[in-house]
Amino acid sequence: MRMRLSEIHGMRIYSDRAHFIGTIDDTIIDDKEGMVVGLVFGRKEGKAISIPYSGLMAIGDIVLVYSKKTEQAGA
To answer: What is the SS3 assignment for 67?
Structure first.
């Protein structure tokens, strides 16, 4: 599936247990591979909160993620 980054920005993220997690604020891109490697959905104590791309279940009208894949990424 191909999507523009502008289409992903602002999408709502839900866990596989139907819990609202947040809204996509930014994307993390591997500049060498040219691929999205994570989605940023907020900040806590000055650090970006992100989900690795491998943690995504599906992207459609919303983003579904596996519950255990949320991680802290350095800002």
So the answer is: helix
